Amino acid sequence: MRVLLDENIPVGVATLLAGHDVQTVSGLRWQGLKNGELLERAGGRFDAFITMDRNIKQQQALADRSFGVVLLRAPSNRIEDLRAVVPALIQALDSLRASRLSTVCARARSCAWVPNMRLKLSAPVLNGFGCRVQRRCSGFSFVIIPARRRSLSAVR
Questions:
Q1: How does DSSP assign the chain, residue by residue?
Q2: Is the backbone of residue 13 left (phi > 0), alpha (psi -120 to 50) or beta?
Q3: Residue-wise pLDDT tens for the chain (156 aa)?
Q4: Which has the closest alpha carbon to 62: 89, 92, 101?
Q5: Is 121 left (phi over 0), alpha (psi -120 to 50) or beta?
Q6: Long-range contacts: 72-77, Cβ < 8 Å, 24+?
Q7: Is the pTM of this model over 0.90?
Q8: Which residues is 126 bridged to in the sheet?
Q9: Which region holds residue 44: left if phi is over 0, alpha if psi is between -120 and 50, else beta?
């Protein structure tokens, strides 16, 4: 599989992905490009793009891309932190399809499972009823009901 590593991924990760043809943004001299232009250049040349940019799904239209995107979630982008996710990263690359986003997390609790995608819950906020609400990227909300407000139910 032809893989492109974003500039926020250490170059050393390329050596850990045995069996894949890995190139880096800096190796191609594409550093400093905005995500949109970077993804346009990658189209047709790569099968997968690996990044740690958490906003890529909101910033870029991935549905019409000829390659898949893997979002790495780790405490930092240091090679020591990323070594732990390499087995899961290789597994994600093997099952990745074009136009799909796959998230690989360093810690199981940092992502909530949803079919074909892992989403992180945001920080809780208070809604108009005094209940804490946690929103997901998919638009669904979960309401955590205080003991005095048992009559409220989950909202969408």
A1: -EEEE-TTS-TTHHHHSTTSEEEETTTTT-TT--HHHHHHHHTTT-SEEEE--TTHHHHS--TT-SSEEEEEE-S-SSHHHHHTTHHHHHHHHHH--TT-EEEEESSGGGSEEETTEEE-----EE-TTS-EEEE-TTS-EEEE--GGGTT-----
A2: alpha
A3: 999 999 999 999 999 998 999 999 999 999 999 988 999 999 999 999 999 998 888 888 888 889 999 999 888 889 988 988 898 899 999 999 998 888 888 765 445 433 334 334 444 444 444 444 444 444 444 444 444 444 444 444
A4: 101
A5: beta
A6: 72/9, 72/104, 73/103, 73/104, 73/105, 73/106, 73/110, 73/111, 73/120, 74/105, 74/106, 75/106, 77/8, 77/9, 77/10, 77/52
A7: no
A8: 132
A9: left
Instruction: For tokens 């005094």, name the residue.
Output: 130
Q: Which amino acid is it at 19? A: G
Look up tokens 């190139």; give the residue. Answer: 23
Output the six-digit token pair for 96: 């990745």
